[in-house]
Amino acid sequence: MTDLDSDSDLPERKRGSGARMVYDLLRDEIIDLKLAPGSPIDEVQLAERFKMSRTPIREALVRLAGEGLIETLPNRSTMVSNIDFLNLHTFFDALVLMYRVTTRLAAQYHRPEDLVVIRRFHEDYAAAVKAHDALAMIATNAAFHSAIAEAGRNPYFTSLFRRILDEGRRILRLYYRSYEEQFPQRFVEEHAELIAVIAARDVEGADRLARAHAEQIVRQIQTLFSRQERLDMAL
Amino acid sequence: MTDLDSDSDLPERKRGSGARMVYDLLRDEIIDLKLAPGSPIDEVQLAERFKMSRTPIREALVRLAGEGLIETLPNRSTMVSNIDFLNLHTFFDALVLMYRVTTRLAAQYHRPEDLVVIRRFHEDYAAAVKAHDALAMIATNAAFHSAIAEAGRNPYFTSLFRRILDEGRRILRLYYRSYEEQFPQRFVEEHAELIAVIAARDVEGADRLARAHAEQIVRQIQTLFSRQERLDMAL
DNA sequence: TGTCGATTTCTTGTCGACAAATAAAATACA
DNA sequence: TGTATTTTATTTGTCGACAAGAAATCGACA
Hints:
The structure is a homodimer.
Chain A: H1 17-31, E1 40-41, H2 43-50, H3 54-66, E2 70-72, E3 78-80, H4 88-109, H5 112-130, H6 134-152, H7 155-174, H8 179-182, H9 185-199, H10 203-233
Antiparallel strand pairs in A: 1-3, 2-3
Helix pairs in contact in A: 1-3, 4-6, 4-7, 4-9, 4-10, 5-6, 5-9, 6-7, 9-10
Chain A binds a DNA duplex through helix 3.
Protein name (chains A, B): GntR family transcriptional regulator
Pfam families (chains A, B): FCD (PF07729), GntR (PF00392)
InterPro entries (chains A, B): GntR_C (IPR011711), TF_FadR/GntR_C (IPR008920), Tscrpt_reg_HTH_GntR (IPR000524), WH-like_DNA-bd_sf (IPR036388), WH_DNA-bd_sf (IPR036390)
């Protein structure tokens, strides 16, 4: 009752940082499904929670809406965006293509220091698999591929890819209980192979591997999804 | 001197429409280079011009910044984004790929009513060419390809593609005086061919044509660009 | 009891004002 | 005359308050 959901105790706040902070935090909570799709978002409530006025809150919400993470009904309410299960195939199309093109460009344009970063996230992911920490797998996998995209140095692609990876994290979280069993060591090995072809600047190989890897993930999600559907029908 | 740049006389304004209106108008002015890259953007000035408070102005600016059309230095100023000539190749890469994938998907997923819209923009473009109206060519060409992307029904791709088309419009405006000579009837014919393969649901043909079309445009821009460079060197 | 209309409530959209941060201008000093 | 420092000016970031719009509630009436 006292101080229940106050993200507490950051009374020190620099001038321009309010909106940024709210944006980052809300984004994380949405992607981690701490805020469920469809949850209402109340400006005054957030203002109280973060102990600031509605203005910087509003700015954060406008940015989140721009990225499609929340939806706002004019004059009425704003809520966390729902996941569009009916059009999942558009998500899959975009996912596969962006996996391919970012990996390809990474093979072409990466610099040595990029590999250091990529390898670090690779190790993080491997550690998460070893620890059977599904939630950490989701996060580090996204970070790994985001780093590869970064090495490709095409801001148009990286920005879209990030958005897709974010949405992918939301979808995977839905099933995270199920895929400790399914998210195998195999992905770790595939990541290692990806690093190898990138380092070798093998563009075609990068494309081929990235495609196979992406389609693997798509199948994984589809399996989880259809299993869930059968579960729903049983009710 | 009196009432020089007031976009005048819309005292009637509905409640939620302020930010939207400013956003649309600024976006147009940026894309049409009425606001040159690097131009400072002053919130109070805009507030006076549109006769509203800074709050809705600010919302519009936040959205524009989210799309990369303006850049804002914390606590200091905000200005129209510059065109990154040094990394034009990333723009070209994204342009070609998005031309291909959106046209491809249009061939796959379009519905009959989509073709009506596409053909209408095609005619608009043809009319602009006939009229030697370079500015109208730029706008209608973008609208044409945007409509094709819409028919592909993948919001991830359409949103990125729109952003790229907007940037392309800015770049083309720089040279619009030069390409009345160069923007030939040929593009009209290529557009007609694109419509044909889409209508025939010929996916591979759509890919091939879109690619050729896009690379044509890229070469066009590169020609204009290098010509301009030689001109600069002559100074 | 059910339906339609008025009223209340709740949330957002807009406003004007103030404070902080930074750049520009002015001043002091060598 | 040139440089360092203080002062001013300008622009943004934040705040609290108020009003409009839409849903929910309540009440009248059949």
